[in-house]
């Protein structure tokens, strides 16, 4: 049977989705008291987890449907977005220094680039 995507891409998608679910559950249960101790900790964690999960799904689209250079850019941008945007919010929720928030917009920009690149990669090749 023909493999739809590379093993590396499949692993990347699985790690992105699985880690979103894991961190969501971890925040809701094991870290709940810690998150409540920090200003906006619970809300920051929820936002990080939501964007993480949605962009893990976007990563599926990028890996499965993205074509050419734009498709590769979309995949990289979504991964960077998850790491920078969600990662910085997870850190802030756990009490990282406020300057960590400087990183967040770069992750948001990576998400935007990822969506634009994905859209471009889906263009008809007529």
Task: Please characterize this protein's 3D structure.
The protein is built from five helices and no strands. The chain is mainly alpha-helical and 126 residues long. The longest helix is centred in the middle third of the chain and has 26 residues, at 68-93. The radius of gyration is 16 Å and the shape is elongated.
Q: Indicate the radius of gyration in whole angstroms.
A: 16 Å
Count of individual beta strands: 0
Give the distance, in angstroms, between the N- and C-terminal Cα atoms: 30 Å
Instruction: Assign an overall shape.
Output: elongated
Q: How do the SSEs run, as a string of H and E?
A: HHHHH
Percent strand equals under 5%
Uncertain runs are: none
The number of helical runs is: 5
Mean pLDDT: 89
Please give a handful of descriptors for the protein shown:
126 residues, mainly alpha, 5 helices, 77% helix
Topology:
Layout (H helix, E strand, L loop, with lengths): L6 H22 L3 H6 L3 H25 L2 H26 L10 H18 L5
Helix pairs in contact: 1-3, 3-4, 3-5, 4-5
